[in-house]
Specification:
462 residues, Aspartate Aminotransferase, domain 2, 4-stranded antiparallel beta sheet, 14 helices
């Protein structure tokens, strides 16, 4: 294939993409396949000779679409969304064509400077103070690992970078039992160790107990451990739990600990001022992460980390001479120093396209609709005999279960997903198997959301 061929096939791919999105409601949300079915259709060995693009495209259409879980399906209510607004998809096409390596300012000036501006735009949109700077990672897991590594090195006065962790005090990181598993992975990868992630109990609202946090920190100091940081949950993956950032941050600051707020899903909702009470006090955090690729419409991958002061993270992750460790106001930004990979994609362009194509008001309207529709759906489900709302809506996420127990609830979920019209997932809450409903797909309507009720009623009547 040459660039003339690419021109023709790109048009054909664009037509296919349009048809794909226009027919998603006619497809089952989740592929009805068994493991190995796709691999069995692929040759066991790579081709020695070039094959015609017609044959390649025909095989793509035959094998791939029917074997995918359709994340852009309007009735995808599982996990969290991985939205891709059309404006974002268009920007990604351009980024793919440019194919830049945005590791340094000089290798991609537009990518670097647009990233700086988009972070400022989003900080303003979320109501954060003007002093926050930040960067765009691939996912919240990477941002959280960057924050945990910064916690580690700040607590050790950056001795771990030079001499490793051998002989150093045992570090401790604190988080609630509602935080995402990426926190657990971060402490493992950072060399801190799973046993040194202290899970703080939560109250009846599923928020970290500040008194229990303070007690754990003081007990660890007395035992000779070195407290290093606190991860604050703002919209947990399981049931949408929120810590009270202001209360937790007051303790962390008094104890000299670095703080990171995980708002990967719920952060997008903070473009709506009426939801900001859920993370009141967040402006005091050292690090905040949210994923525009979840609820805001930016195509994956696009995870924004805000930093009150980038110096500790750059000092941890950057490789630069000591005389450049302080970031001067007029210094050129090289974002590879702010994150783990040296190589970086031009992620800011899709945010620029997205925010301009929809405006904050257009995006707010979508999020407000999703929250309202989720509440309407939960209210209707609560009226069904034998069904219980286990956790009330947190923004657009709630859980329900059958009163008959876990086995009956699990069997119900399997029947719902096998039907194909909607896709839901499960979680364990307080030892109980529950079904999650999360409304957030970019193009869903109220009718799509209420389809959950239609399917549920049919499955209960069967």
């Amino acid at each position: 294939m040459n660039h003339d061929d690419l021109k023709d096939w790109s048009k054909r791919a664009a037509d296919w993409a349009h048809d794909y999105h226009m027919t998603l409601r006619d497809r089952p949300v989740r592929a009805p396949l068994v493991p190995g079915a796709v691999a069995a259709q692929l040759p066991p060995h790579p081709p020695e000779a070039a094959e015609p693009m017609e044959a390649i495209w025909a095989d793509f259409e035959r094998i791939v679409p029917g074997a995918m879980t359709h994340w852009q399906h309007p009735r995808f209510f599982a996990y969290f969304p991985a939205n891709a607004a059309p404006a974002s998809m268009l920007a990604e096409q351009v980024v793919n064509a440019i194919a830049a390596q945005a590791m340094l300012w000089q290798t991609s000036p537009a990518a670097t400077e647009m990233e700086e501006v988009m972070v400022r735009w989003l900080a303003e949109a979320l109501g954060l103070p003007g002093g926050f700077r930040g960067t765009i990672h691939d996912s919240a897991s990477t941002a959280t690992l960057a924050a945990v590594l910064t916690m580690r090195e700040r607590a050790l006065d950056w001795a771990g970078l030079r001499g490793g962790l051998a002989g150093q005090p045992r570090l401790r990181i604190y988080a609630s039992d509602q935080t995402h598993s990426s926190i657990d992975k971060a402490v493992r990868v950072a060399g801190i160790g799973q046993e040194n992630l202290v899970k703080i109990p939560t109250d009846s609202r599923h928020a970290m107990k500040p008194g229990a946090l303070l007690g754990a920190i003081r007990a660890d100091r007395a035992a000779g451990f070195l407290p290093a940081g606190v991860v604050i949950c703002a919209g947990g993956t399981s049931i949408g739990a929120f810590d009270c950032p202001g209360d937790v941050l007051a303790i962390a600051k008094a104890e000299g600990l670095y703080t990171h707020v995980d708002a990967a899903w719920a952060g997008s909702a903070m473009i709506c001022p009426e939801f900001r009470a859920l993370w009141q006090g967040v402006e005091g955090a050292d690090s905040i992460v949210f994923n525009p690729h979840k609820w805001l419409g930016a195509q994956f991958d696009c995870s924004v980390q805000f930093l009150a002061d980038p110096v500790p993270q750059v000092r941890t992750l950057g490789l630069r001479p000591s005389y450049l460790e302080t970031l001067e106001a007029d210094e050129v930004t090289n974002f590879n120093e702010w994150t783990l990979p040296l190589g970086r994609r031009f992620r800011a362009l899709k945010l620029w396209f997205l925010l301009r194509a929809h405006g904050l008001e257009g995006l707010r309207a979508r999020i407000r609709n999703h929250v309202a529709w989720a509440r309407d759906l939960a209210a209707e489900i609560a009226r069904r005999p034998g069904v219980e709302i286990v956790t009330e809506p947190s923004l657009s996420l709630f859980t329900f279960a059958l009163r008959d127990g876990d086995r009956a609830t699990a069997a119900l979920l399997e029947r719902i997903n096998a039907d194909g019209r909607v896709y839901l997932t499960q979680t364990m809450h307080r030892g109980r198997f529950v079904i999650r409903v999360q409304v957030g797909q970019f193009d869903c309507t109220r009718d799509d959301v209420m389809c959950v009720l239609e399917v549920l009623d049919q499955m209960l009547a069967a």
